Amino acid sequence: MVDKVSTGIEKLDEILGGGLLPGSIMLVIGEPGTGKTTLIRNFIREGVEKGENCVYLMTNRSLDHVITAMARSGWDVENNPNLKFILYNGVVNKRVKSFVGNFEDLIDIAYNCERLVSSFKNGSARMVIDDLSYMFLMSSKDLIFKFLNRIIQILREHEATCLMEIQKGMLDPQIVTALESLTDGTIEMKREGNKRSFRVSRIEDAEAKPDWADFSFSSGIGLEIEAEKTLSEWEKMLVDKEKGNANVTKRIGRMQKKPSIPPKKGFFNPQK
Predict the structure, then answer these.
(1) Residues of the chain with pLDDT > 90: what percent?
(2) Model confidence, pTM
(3) DSSP letter for each residue of 134-193
(4) Which domain holds residue 129?
(5) Measured between alpha carbons, how far is residue 231 from residues 119, 137, 228, 244 in Å?
């Protein structure tokens, strides 16, 4: 019998029949404030505490803020050899041993993910992407899907389990459907007042659980809940980041119409 991968949330593991199969790729979907980031950090912490190798890919976040939030819960990640941080257009004020790099190029990210996952020797590995929504603002969907296909290929080859976070309502429904076709299941999250819930609405080779279950932060790692950004807030953030640049509007328009980087031949599709 295959040992399943715990999510770090007891109730979610129960719904999943003991956890996720090694090598599973799951989407975590919900509106801002539903607890998606907290869930994926529980997933990563569970792996690190079990001695598993973990990769945390974050988009447009501050590494310092994330590490500080984790430290408040008693989790020292700065020099943990089992956890590696990769940033996509993030912010880094203080370099730590667990920091791999801050990249603007998806090809560089794919290369470093492959290098890391291929180097893991001691069994199980995990990865989270926090979150995919920002990528679709910065690059063309064609380039992002080439990147994701390559990442998923790498993860499956090494049976590394992955959670990918996306913001509900931010992406075109066709993009969400395409993401679902690439992945093995979907964990949906919602919030009604102070009550947060989740359900496994889609899972390969198993019965989905349509009923909602309450999600208690006290059962997790108690991280500070960050306010997740809406689409308008992402756009404002991009403008603020380039404040004073007279061409910022034109640049944002170009980013939405074409890739921000030219794909290098052969890397995303090494068999050609």
Answers:
(1) 48
(2) 0.80
(3) HHHHHS-HHHHHHHHHHHHHHHHHTT-EEEEEEETTTS-HHHHHHHHHHSSEEEEEEEET
(4) 10-257
(5) 36, 9, 10, 22
> Which residues are 84's β-sheet partners?
55
Q: What's the rounded Cα separation, in Å, for the pair 34 and 44?
A: 18
For residue 206, being part of any structural domain is answered with: yes
Domain count, the chain: 1
Residue 268 lies in a domain: no
pLDDT over 70 at 92, yes or no: yes
Per-residue pLDDT tens digits for 138-185: 889 999 999 999 999 999 999 999 999 999 999 999 999 999 999 999
Angstrom distance (rounded) from CA 87 to CA 100: 8
Q: Are 91 and 61 in contact (CB under 8 A)?
A: yes
The CA-atom distances, in angstroms, between 87 and each of 72, 130, 153 are: 21, 10, 20
Q: Is 1 a member of any domain?
A: no
Instruction: Indicate the helix (H) or strand (E) that contains 9.
Output: none
Q: Is residue 2 situated within a structural domain?
A: no
CA distance 53 to 173: 33
**CA–CA distance, 95 with 111 (Å, rounded to integer):** 21
- Find all residues with CB under 8 Å of 40, minimum gap 6, and list them: 28, 128, 130, 163, 165
Environment class of residue 141 by beta-carbon count within 10 Å: exposed (0-12), middle (13-18) or buried (19+)?
middle
DSSP 8-state code for residue 35: S
Task: Judge whether 41 and 49 are in contact, CB under 8 Å.
Answer: no
